[in-house]
Amino acid sequence: MIDINDFLSEPIRSGMVAIVGPPNAGKSTLMNYLLGQKISIVSHKPQTTRNRILGVVNDDKYQIVLLDTPGLHKARQPLNREMVRIAMESLNEVDVIVYMIDVSLPLPEKVEQEKNKEMMEQMEGVAAPVILVLNKVDLLEKERLLPMMKRYSELFPFHGVLPLSALTGEGTEVVVEELLKLLPLGPRYFPEDVPTDASERFLAAEIVREKVFILTGQEIPYSTAVTIESFQDDETKKMTTIHATIVLERNSQKGIVIGKGGKKLKSIGTAARKDIEKMLGQKVLLKLWVKVRKDWSKDERFLKELGF
């Protein structure tokens, strides 16, 4: 006879945590570190993350569902406004908020005051407890850290002001400990072997876009979208064939992405293929095309096609 209790597990600490903050604060790096694998794409350029990415940190005693969000900034273009909207909506859906800032670069006092004001305005009215994470402290002079933590703790009723290096992992254990104090008891949201709810198609497109960010000049990445035209698995050959299109806004950008003799596009494809093979655990045949869709970042219809 089947006992229903065999399917019920003891309550654990489980809940949703939004990682928010300004562009290039290290949000994606933190999530990837906590997951122990790469889910969110990363580059040194701001506004790399455009969509909300979900990652699941599993342990015998807890499950933390992380939401990596686009950077909070003053947005003017439709694409940027959608990115900020996605990030702000996440604040209303979670049990805890981790607000990350990069403290490695000294800022003029006026600029720092403006950024702190923006942060407090963004957190105003949120119901969930907020932990402030000071990232890149490994690049900070040690004597500056304690006064900085005290100063930030006086700005807003944070449930903690924690130093961190998302790149090296320094301080991540303390962040997890503080999160577990705030998360409720409950069931797991996802099976223990599920690291994300993102589809392989979506992640493949993100990987291609990451390589464009890394391998092209300043003006190109922000004018780039990637669509997956086909994604086919061949179980006999143990190979996945992917056809993807890099979409640009202007004809002048096309030659830059393709490069002389197609070298730049080949470099993008090779780098992306290696990461996709690592993700899928098998060989990948990646075919890339480049096309121009004039001012796509202002085209609300196309933005919906991209999932915004």
From TrEMBL:
> The Era-type G domain covers which part of the protein?
13-185
Protein topology in the membrane? Peripheral membrane protein
Q: Which InterPro entries match?
A: G_ERA_dom, GTP-bd, GTPase_Era-like, KH_dom-like_a/b, KH_dom_type_2, KH_sf_prok-type, P-loop_NTPase, Small_GTP-bd
rRNA-binding: present as a keyword of the record? yes
Region spans: G4: 135-138
Gene Ontology CC, one term: plasma membrane
Region span, G5: 164-166
Q: Which Gene3D superfamilies match?
A: 3.30.300.20, P-loop containing nucleotide triphosphate hydrolases
What coarse category fits the chief subcellular location reported for this protein? cytoplasm
Instruction: Quote one Gene Ontology molecular function term.
Output: ribosomal small subunit binding
Q: Which UniProt keywords apply?
A: Cell inner membrane, Cell membrane, Cytoplasm, GTP-binding, Membrane, Nucleotide-binding, Ribosome biogenesis, RNA-binding, rRNA-binding
Whether Transit peptide counts among this entry's keywords is no
Which portions of the sequence form the region G2?
47-51
Region (G1): which ranges? 21-28
Residues of the region (G3) are 68-71
Q: Where in the cell is it found?
A: Cytoplasm; Cell inner membrane
GO terms for biological process, alphabetical: ribosomal small subunit assembly
- Looking at the record, the residues that make up the KH type-2 domain are 216-294
Locate the residues binding GTP: 21-28, 68-72, 135-138
Q: Summarize subunit and interaction data from the UniProt record for this chain.
A: Monomer.
Which NCBIfam families does this chain map to? Answer: era, PRK00089.1, small_GTP
Q: Show the HAMAP family listed in the entry.
A: GTPase_Era
Q: What does this protein do?
A: An essential GTPase that binds both GDP and GTP, with rapid nucleotide exchange. Plays a role in 16S rRNA processing and 30S ribosomal subunit biogenesis and possibly also in cell cycle regulation and energy metabolism.
This chain belongs to which protein, by name? Answer: GTPase Era
Write down the species. Desulfocapsa sulfexigens (strain DSM 10523 / SB164P1)
